[in-house]
Specification:
Length: about 280
């Protein structure tokens, strides 16, 4: 993959994973487009679950020498590939954080998968690699303890631990009123793991993110939050369905207003408030 003069290096031994199982050259086209349109020179970006560095390369060129890109990656094997891409592209504005972002300091027990470490237990359709079926412990640090500068964009792909990442950056989200957050949401897999599938968007609303748009990469479509919630509620999504939520507190309204409180979905709503009182099309 090229972006300007930058190139994403993938070892030949991993082509079946990163160019087959996941086509990294065309991975998440909706999210990639939004990601690119949100950034400008001088911005500070945080990429949690940076993997081998696709979004790091994209961000580094756009924010330029006056900007900063924080790459958070905890898988030792994946981290080596990330470092290689940063070094071979001579990215001077990238800082790598070799730990797992979480709500509190400690350790995380994560499953070994073909594309790194995951809080989700790998399903039968996931490729088998050395170590599959085992877990490893990695250091966990809240982002509030490691990043002190202003932040303009946060992208989180933490394989099921996304809410814990958000809980560990409350200060960052409070101090940066105009921050954009792009976070992966996988309701069927969360429900299968015993989690409330609506807890993530509910937490975002309670944190002040009143404008949320759904980037449905599975069906290559943008959706409003209420539409996606109705799909989840009616079980009209496949077991491996996931999407990215793009969230902001301020700026242009993101379109369609929510038609009613989410309490009618049967899920509890904290403090008696609705999960989303408005949402809709992306402002990017």
């Amino acid at each position: 993959m090229r972006r300007g003069s930058y190139r994403l290096y993938i070892p030949r031994a991993l082509h079946s994973i990163y160019l087959g199982y996941i086509d990294m050259l065309d991975h998440e086209p909706l999210t990639s487009k939004v990601f690119l349109r949100l950034l400008k020179t001088g911005n500070v970006v945080v990429d949690v679950g940076a993997n081998i560095g696709k979004y790091i390369l994209l961000a580094s060129g756009l924010v330029g020498p006056t900007g900063r890109v924080h790459a958070v990656e905890c898988s030792p094997e994946t981290l080596a590939l990330l470092r290689n891409n940063v070094q071979r592209n001579n990215l001077q504005n990238v800082e790598i954080h070799p730990f797992g972002a979480s709500s509190a300091p400690g350790t995380l027990a994560l499953h070994v998968t073909a594309i790194g470490l995951s809080w989700f237990k790998p399903g039968p359709q996931w490729p088998v690699v050395q170590g599959s079926g085992t877990t490893v412990n990695v250091a966990a640090i809240p982002l509030d303890e490691s990043i002190s500068s202003p932040v303009h964009l946060v992208k989180i792909d933490a394989e099921g631990a996304d809410l814990e990442v958000l809980k560990g950056m409350k200060r960052i989200l409070t101090e940066n009123d105009r921050v954009y957050v792009i976070v992966e949401w996988a309701p069927p897999m969360l429900a299968e793991a015993g989690k409330d599938p609506l807890e993530l968007p509910r937490w975002l609303q309670e944190a002040g993110f009143g404008r949320i748009c759904v980037l449905d990469e599975y069906y290559n479509k943008r959706r409003s939050l209420d539409e996606a919630i109705e799909m989840v509620r009616a079980k009209k999504v496949p077991p491996d369905w996931f999407c990215d939520l793009i969230c902001t507190k301020t700026g242009p309204t993101l379109g369609q207003r929510y038609l009613g409180p989410l309490s009618r979905s049967g899920f509890p709503v904290a403090h008696g408030t609705s999960l989303a009182d408005r949402c809709g099309r992306c402002a990017v």
